[in-house]
Amino acid sequence: MGRDASLKQHEFESEALVHLDTLYNVALRLTGNAPDAEDLVQDTVTKAYRAWDKYQPGTNCRAWLVTIMRNTFINQFRRKRKQPSRVQFDSVEDVSVFDEVQERDPAGSFFRSIVDDDVKRAIQELPEEFRIPVVLSDVEGLSYAEIAEILELPVGTVKSRLFRGRRRLQKRLYEYALEMGYIR
Amino acid sequence: MTGFIRDLLGKMMPPPGGIDCGGVLAQLYEYIDEELDDPATVEKIRKHLQVCKRCYPRYDFEKAFLRFVSELGRTSAPAELRGRIFQNILEEESQN
After folding, report:
1. A110-124 pLDDT per residue, tens
2. Is A131 exposed, middle or buried (0-12, 13-18, 19+ CB in 10 A)?
3. Residue ranges of chain B with pLDDT lower than 70?
4. Percent of chain A with pLDDT over 90
5. Beta-carbon pairs below 8 A across chains A and B
6. What total of structural domains would you count in chain B?
7. Which of B29, B65, B93 is facing A111, going by the closest CB pair?
8. Which pLDDT does position B13 carry in this prediction?
9. Which of A1, A21, A50 sits opposite B77 (nearest CB)?
10. Mean pLDDT of chain A
11. Cβ contacts (< 8 Å) between A126 and chain B: which residues?
């Protein structure tokens, strides 16, 4: 292996592969299952490595990688699957959980009673339009502007999807807590 | 204090921080997410939350929710996948 190749590898490892957990996490939420998520991560990393010359050092590598992942997912994975879920423009998120629990549990301590598998399932059950912004923001800590760029949406749309996605997620978690008798 | 008197007082007195509850709630997520561009607005909301008995619990609840999601929503990449990816990159180079 030449010196350039070894340098490229070193750069790629220290700038891109440090985001492997993020990539896996987003892949899991996009595909909904571990084997497809692993394939999607592998395809994304391979593409990113081949395109490494096009990456501008010092720019946002994580957002660049997630963008490649999203495009790969749209091109390859979605074809195999059914049509993406249509957002139901119903009003589930109109009533906030806080309004329902503020007397009994204003600090939201019922959240603590929910096990992580249920949290992940609740996230997965969100329609994709809400799920991906919520994962990128609330699990991965990306900014509105980064999410807007990755998803090719206006920042205002990201904000409203986050708002509605969070409300839906709260509602689902609240329902789990009720079902399990953690809150009455 | 009855709701009527509280509402009346609310109308007479300037809201804490110079921003009313509706304004705070509408921007609460942006405030928590540190996405508000205007430092003056951030300061108004911060002051409002310090004293408002209605908005503070709401803020507290949303913070608890977001902390919870960030802690429990994450899955680490399996070690085996990590190994395979490093291996792939080595192979990718040796083919060139």
Report:
1. 888 888 888 999 999
2. buried
3. 1-2, 6, 9-12, 95-96
4. 62
5. 115
6. 1
7. B65
8. 73
9. A21
10. 88
11. none
Q: What's the pLDDT band for A94 if we cut at 50, 70, 90? A: low
Please state, in angstroms and rounded to a whole number, the distance separating the CA atoms of residues A139 and A15. Answer: 20
Instruction: Give the residue from A67, A57, A58, A61 showing the smallest Cα distance to A26.
Output: A67
| pLDDT one-digit tens code per residue, A42-82 | 999 999 999 999 998 888 999 999 999 999 999 887 666 55
Query: For residue B59, what are its two tokens?
Result: 């803020």
User: What size, in residues, is chain B?
Assistant: 96
Residue identified by tokens 């571990």 is A34
CB A109 within 8 A of CB B68: no
* CA dist., res. B42 & res. B46, Å (int): 6
A116, A125, A130, A173, best to mutate vs chain B, most B CBs in 10 Å: A116
At residue A38, the pLDDT reads 96
Domains and CATH numbers, chain A: 3-80 (1.10.1740.10), 97-179 (1.10.10.10)
- Cβ separation A109–B64 shorter than 8 A: yes
Distance (Å, rounded) from C-alpha B33 to C-alpha B52?
20
Give the domain extent around B10.
Answer: 3-95
For the cut 70, the answer to whether the pLDDT of residue A132 exceeds it is yes
